[in-house]
Specification:
heterodimer; A: elongated; B: five-stranded parallel beta sheet; four-stranded antiparallel beta sheet
């Protein structure tokens, strides 16, 4: 009886009620949206690499190595020699290795040079293997396998010729147009940075850079610049010809990566994903690799380094969630104000109900019912707005943040948040309910204002 | 017009030495030494605005509680009942018609009339004992009050004329056959002809169910229509108010 009466009363004040519901809905959509993006970011990060025991790169911070090698955020400060790669791959504890060579791009998407081992051993999510939805793996220096998002965004099909560019920005300043690639395969969606990568063989990437070196050899200015850079590197104390001054991304200079010798597919690479025969050896191997004398290397445990990333982001995440929470509080405060301001004009209505037989708890329940109804409808509308917003904004999120947010029903955590908002709405509703309860007791059948 | 004897045995309302003030420091606004109203009686209480008539009705309805004295309705001492029991008693046994009708604006005609049954299982059962639903009883009551149009039942009350609203208010007070109806100046905004027509309809319904009616008004011309008329200033012996002689309870 009371709830239908509350709903009809709200319908009578539909403008105020609609605005109240809208403010609650917007705040709930924001709260759940932030939570959803936060969770999805974490899942995307956590799912990006699975089954890899170690990631090895040139000496740098562990977080930097993880972000640059797996998530393609930032650039590696230096490269790893192919000799080091061969040495690590030959270690008895090592089951498999995947070389990664980054630094080139095509229309804003990273180009990743690797080997067949990438398709055999790379895992994401819950130990899931990469799958091709079209075509096959690259088998020669001209083959190219596209991530799902690259194919979708650029509309490329099998057999299409592609020219890659130096650097990793959206705008290409130098094209490797002497070595065009051809799309031979398209990967299934993974919800990880793999979707945004273009995969080519190390040989193919090397061929591109060999061409670049040859150009430098016939161009006196280019040759002089290259020599100057090498001298500068040596003055900085490096003996390795590949070393590049700190702060200058390695991917801007990879003339040295070309002209691989002794049948190796490349002279240097960016990082190595390592799978061990026994996971228990991971810490031992990490220490051993970090102490390598031949070349300064950094080996990281992906899971442990990911925790460091979360620690860095935790403050920002908490701030974001706290702000969203405050917005919800503001939405509910709006409801409180709307209900409290309506009380004076509703005292007569309550007095009439009391005279008709309504007990004080009826009056109390009426106001509480209204607050509960407004909150629940606000939450419902907020969820609808969230899903609509995600459906509309998903392409943008994927393109600009690389965040793929698949449709899924609210999680237990999100249900918890909704219950929290509903509980807060009911608690806030107690204030006007108690006030009208007291007023209805004092007013009797007449209202003395 | 029927004249009813107001004996202690069959009195629906019996007040003695009732005192009520809004707060302890101020003088009482109601000070009634004695008042009895018999079952089926139609009593008119006449008095100027601000003389405490509406407060007396609130005491009779059990919305307010007298600080001293006895307020007995249908043999129940209202002051002895708990707050919730008094509320339930009002819901079950008392109908109210307000001066400004006070219909709930967001409910339809039918919903307004049925509203008291939402708060009282007893009144709801009484309706259903007649073999009809609460809604059907509401429609029948409205038909008796010359509002038989079916289309009218679903209309919002805000779209009704003053006379129609008044009849809806009367039907609301009578649904579920309460033993006592308290009417607080319900005819004050009506002209003479419509006032008489409304009273005729109200009396007819009260007589049909032998409902006791206490009707508050400041219009002395209505007195002949009632079984008994009481000058409220005589009844309510508040400090400084000289007792009147005519139409007092004791004089009858």
């Amino acid at each position: 009886m009371i709830l239908p009466l509350a709903i009809k009363s709200l319908r009578n004040r539909r403008l105020t009620a609609s605005l109240t519901v809208l403010s609650i809905a917007l705040s709930v959509a924001l709260l759940l949206g932030v939570e959803r993006i936060r969770q999805q970011s974490r899942e995307t990060f956590a799912n990006s690499v699975s089954g890899t025991d170690l990631i090895v790169g040139a000496r740098s911070s562990p977080v930097h190595l993880l972000l640059s090698s797996v998530f393609r955020i930032g650039n590696a400060t230096n490269n790893v020699s192919w000799d080091s790669y061969r040495r690590i791959a030959a270690l008895p504890e090592v089951a498999w290795t995947i070389p990664l060579s980054l630094g080139d791009s095509h229309r804003g998407f990273h180009v990743l040079g690797t080997t067949q081992d990438y398709f055999d051993h790379y895992r994401f999510g819950q130990d899931r293997k990469l799958k091709l939805v079209e075509g096959e793996r690259f088998t020669d220096a001209h083959g190219m396998v596209l991530g799902a998002e690259v194919a979708a965004a650029l509309g490329y099909r099998l057999g299409q010729p592609i020219v890659i560019a130096h650097g990793s920005g959206d705008v290409a300043f130098a094209l490797h147009n002497d070595h065009p690639f051809r799309v031979v395969g398209i990967l299934a969606r993974t919800g990880t940075p793999v979707d945004r990568a273009i995969h080519v063989s190390l040989e193919g990437l090397d061929a591109v850079h060999a061409q670049k070196s040859a150009e430098a050899a016939v161009d006196p200015l280019a040759a002089a610049m290259q020599k100057a850079r090498q001298r500068e590197a040596q003055r900085a104390g490096g003996t390795d010809q590949d070393r590049i001054p700190a702060g200058q991304p390695a991917d801007h200079e990879h003339g040295d990566r070309g002209a691989a010798e002794n049948g190796s597919p490349a002279r240097t690479i960016t990082a190595i994903l390592v799978g061990l025969k026994s996971r228990s050896k991971a810490l031992f191997m990490q220490r051993q690799l970090n102490e390598t004398r031949e070349e300064p290397l950094t080996a990281i445990l992906p899971g442990a380094t990911l925790l460091e990333v979360w620690d860095i982001l935790a403050g920002a995440e908490k701030t974001l969630v706290a702000i969203s929470g405050l917005v919800v509080v503001m939405g509910l405060a709006g409801m409180l104000i709307a209900l409290l301001t309506s009380l004076s004009e509703r005292r007569r209505e309550m007095a009439v109900l009391r005279a008709l037989g309504a007990r004080p708890w009826h009056v109390f329940a009426l106001l509480l019912g209204e607050a509960t109804f407004l909150t629940l409808v606000g939450i419902g509308l907020g969820i609808a707005m969230l899903y609509l917003g995600l459906a509309v904004g998903e392409p943008w999120l994927e393109k600009s943040l690389g965040l793929f947010i698949p449709f899924r029903w609210p999680s237990a955590g999100e249900f918890g948040l909704m219950m929290l908002v509903a509980g807060a709405g009911v608690c806030i509703g107690l204030i006007p309910a108690y006030r009208i309860y007291r007023l209805s007791l004092a007013d009797g059948m007449t209202i003395r204002i | 017009m029927t004249v009813h004897a107001s004996t202690a045995v069959d009195a629906v309302v019996h007040l003695s030495d009732v005192r009520y003030s809004w707060d302890a420091a101020s003088p009482p606004v109601v000070a009634v030494d004695s008042l009895r109203v018999a079952r089926g009686e139609r009593l008119m209480l006449r008095g100027p605005s601000g003389s405490g008539k509406s407060t007396l009705l609130s005491l009779l309805a059990g919305v307010l509680k007298a600080q001293s004295g006895s307020v007995r309705v249908l043999g129940h001492e209202l002051g002895a009942l708990t707050d919730s029991a008094r509320d339930l008693f009002r819901a079950d046994h008392i109908g109210v018609i307000f001066q400004m009708f006070n219909l709930i604006p967001y409910l339809s005609v039918r919903e307004n009339v049925c509203l008291p049954c939402a708060f009282s299982a007893r009144r709801r059962n009484r309706c259903e004992q007649s073999g009809a639903s609460v809604g059907e009883v509401a429609a029948r009551l409205l038909r008796h009050l010359d509002m038989g149009d079916v289309e009218m039942l679903g209309r919002q009350v805000t779209g009704l004329s003053v006379g129609q609203q008044q009849r809806v208010a009367a039907a609301r007070s009578l649904i579920g056959r309460p033993e006592l109806v308290l009417a607080d100046e319900p005819t004050s905004s009506l002209d003479g002809d419509r006032r008489a027509a409304f009273l005729e309809l109200l009396f007819r319904e009260c007589e049909r169910e032998r409902t006791t009616l206490i009707f508050v008004t400041h219009d002395a011309t209505l007195a002949p229509l009632f079984d008994r008329a009481v000058e409220f200033c005589d009844l309510n012996r508040i400090a400084g108010a000289p007792p009147a002689t005519a139409l007092s309870d004791d004089a009858r």
